[in-house]
Predict the structure.
Amino acid sequence: MRTSSPHRANLLGLAFMTPAMVLLLGFFFLPVVLTSVFAFTNMSTATGISGGSYIVTGNLLRSLTDEGLDAKTIEALGQSSYVIDQAGLEKARAAGVDAKFITEIGERLKDRSFTSASAFERELKTLPSRPTRVRDLKIAAGAFEQSVLNVRYASRGEMEAALLHMLENPPQGAIERIATASYTGWTWTTENFKNLLVAPDTWRIVGNTVFYVVLTLAFNVLVGLFLAITTFYLPSAGSSFFSVLWLLPRITPVVLYAVMWKWFTWEDGFVFNIAQDLGLPAFNYMKGSVASAWTVVILVNGFVGASFGMILFSGALKAIPVQQLWASDVDGASRWQQIRYIILPHMRWPILFVTSYQTLSLLSSYEQIWLTTNGGPGSTTTVWALEAFKTALNNYTGNLQYGLGAAMALILVAVGLVLSIVYLRLFRFDEMMSKPKIEF
Amino acid sequence: MQISINNFTKTFDGTPVIDDMNLTIRDGEMLALLGPSGCGKSTTLFTISGIHRMDKGQLMFGDRDVSGLPSQKRNVGVVFQNYALYPHMNVFENIAFPLTVRKDNKADIDREVRAIAALTHISELLERRPGQLSGGQQQRVALARALVRKPDVLLLDEPLANLDAKLRLEMRSEIRRIQLETGITAVLVTHDQVEAMSMCDRIAIMKKGEIVQIDTPADMYSNPRTSFVAGFLGNPPISFLSGIAMENSFSVAPIKLRVPLGAHEGIADGTQLKLGVRPEHFGPEGDIAVEGKIAFAETQGRENLYDVALADGSVLRSIQPAGRNWALGDTVRWFIDSKSAFVFSDDGRRL
């Protein structure tokens, strides 16, 4: 036999695996990597996603003041100075100032500097060849003006040089600090996480999310299980009718489904009118009160997940060997005992699957909430994924904070991973997937 | 407890499976329902257990009419073909299940389970899961679970079908021993005549939803009521010759065979008949000579089996002790023991 054949077989296997590997990398691994990368930047609409430049603006001065930079430096940054140097002379010539006047400035005022426009102009007026018109004088003076304010520098070096030029005795580290702050592009940072940790909203949203996931998940699994078991015991004709009925939330397009819930719960909607007729408080149940908003959010998501659970559980129920049920019947087990002792133990794997799958999809789901309560009233029904979505992709102020949004998403990914591991441990996944030792 | 089934009819989706059946199982006896697949024997068993309901008829456990009761209220024990042990429970929990759902107290359950485990010889397996047991052990657990709450009747659905040959022999006698020790009324469904004959007090042979004959194994073998029963019992099976009645004899003209009908005199000449000859009643000794050629020979060690092809193409089977061996193709002149041969009418009735 040729010795190369095992090697060739390996290559063939690799070739077969390639599409799967490419898909895995492209659609599963890469998004997580990119999210992680973005999470450690301060990218936003303002910074853009490519590089930026260095510029000191009035806004920056204000925020530097707030951050405690000393007033003297701030003042110096905001001021203009007039220095008579070769560059200034060139600039004046380019601006079309009288050549004789330029020569005089060069000879008499060379290397002098003035801290204000008026002092410089007063000095200029003493020169013999001064222009008669004040406007021309101001143009000439302007050529020598030096300021960092609103000047765009391409590199950090240029900005620092300019700052050094402007500030006589800058405090320790001030140059670096101002240069860093003046950068308009994105930078690497861990601020996103620090900010999230201290922001008071964060913990409220975490609370909302836990509340939402736990209640919706319970609804998903319990209602799904209940429906599957009841339809299992129904005669087959009835059960298929109910199965289709319960599938409707799943197969209705999500926007249409949300609109139907709006009709159902909004002012002059179905519930509103019924409540009015019964003399109960009638209001917009979707956004009118925190309790009703939560009820709507949990039901909207709950029914979608319950029908998903029902399909899975129904399939699993049909896979239980019928002799097991017969055996428990003749052993004297009532319906409830049969469910408790025979059916539920057989359903361990599908219950694990639905629980873990739904936990993860609920953690990252926001679309139904966005389309119904939109996190309101206030931000009482805002969950983590919705907040991340709004922060990164759909913000009223218009400044989309990709970096912060990615940081929020990354936390979600981490939580999801941890939960998956916990679930696998909890349900002893490996044991469950091992080959059954008993024959059916 | 005596079980009686009266005028039992069952149809599945409009197809009649059992039609107007009557059957009585005596108290303490073990009865086999024997028949080919599709004859309705499992249906009968599941109807007694309550898994299937009767469309028409009455089922009595002793004096109690249980026709309308669900299986939970019937107090029956069933051993399923695949045992249907609960894979997520250990052996103790499996056996205890019927008592647990009845909410017996813990001490009673423990005592009962250990007693039945001792009877079925699985006391040392109580902590194991079904997946860790051999087929024979699973069988014993299934038996223990069926017996633990002292059912009125024990129902066994092809209990040996999933076992290998050696275990089948062992469990055959074990099930019988346990049934005798507990004195329970039992019904065994099987398609294997050896199982039925070796384990049961009586056999009910079924065909197409009807009970053809119900008798003790020995009586049924020596006195079959139809050619179907004669053909179903016995291994190697009985062989049949077709012929006509001629002057108080069974006659196969082409080979000039004539077997006197003895007690069955008075059959009109020319009536179509069948003669059933068991393999042990055809050989070098007997009274009616037949000539043929060995068409098949099989050595089984202690005995040899032969198929002897007659001149008209029909075949007689023979079983002979090893020693004097015939070879394939040998021409033999053997004899039918005419007194032991069965005469059947053309439609299979025994005459």
Summary: Chain A has a mean pLDDT of 83. The radius of gyration of chain A is 35 Å.
